[in-house]
Known about the structure:
By secondary structure, this protein is α/β, with parallel strands linked by helices. The chain is about 40% helix and about 20% strand. It contains twelve helices and eight strands. Strands 3-4-2-5-1-6-7-8 form an eight-stranded mixed beta sheet, with helices on both faces. Strand 7, helix 9 and strand 8 form a beta-alpha-beta unit. The protein starts with a strand and ends with a helix.
Amino acid sequence: MISDILSVVNQKGGVGKTTTCINLAAALAKAKRKILLVDLDPQSNATKGCGLDPHSLDISVNDVLLGRNNLLEAIVPLDSYGFNILPATPELTEAEVKLLSLSEKEFTLKNLLNTIKEQYDYIIIDCPPSLNILTVSSLTASNGVLIPVQCEFFALQGLSELITTIETIQESTNNNLTIKGIVRTMFDPRNNLANDVSAQLIKFFKEKLFKTIIPRNITVAEAPSHGMPVTEYDKHSKGALSYLSLTGEIIKQEK
């Protein structure tokens, strides 16, 4: 059992973070890995993208973080996709506020996941698009960080700020945290700026940059509205194949 806990994080929204979480979970499940996807974003997009309605859930990650319910009660098996999800609802903003008053607030999620991590090969956490207490909790609970980056004008600035945050977490609450890799998402090779930014990423982060590039692809964009991973929605699409390729790179990193 590998038992990797990965935070998928970028403080900028709209970079394919949630899409990457869902499709990595599905592709790793196809590779016979036991997967838990944790939706830690009050927007609940990972929950919706897996076909669940946040408003119909009785128990969510919010209830678990605030100690109202047991973690196992909240986990939903997605049998058709082969992985489990700890879903979110918009009420997660409550935990965001209430956790701030707790003395060991950064460790709340870590303590919860430690009770079940041996049951999974990978726990993938979809972080909110901001560096708030939920993101800090996720980074404290994880041993790896996966950073989706869209190759656009402010990407490098945002990436350097995020790396500074990761270094702060390493020094304060989690010295086991490492950057698993940076993945270029929503990439359009016809865009000169995208190519320029990609070249800069290769120059400065070559050792941490996944070779796989996720293209800007209509099926990747459509799949969440159907509540499906793209690997199920259209398994032969360029988007699905690229996520399978990324998964292959992650599996190669297994110790």
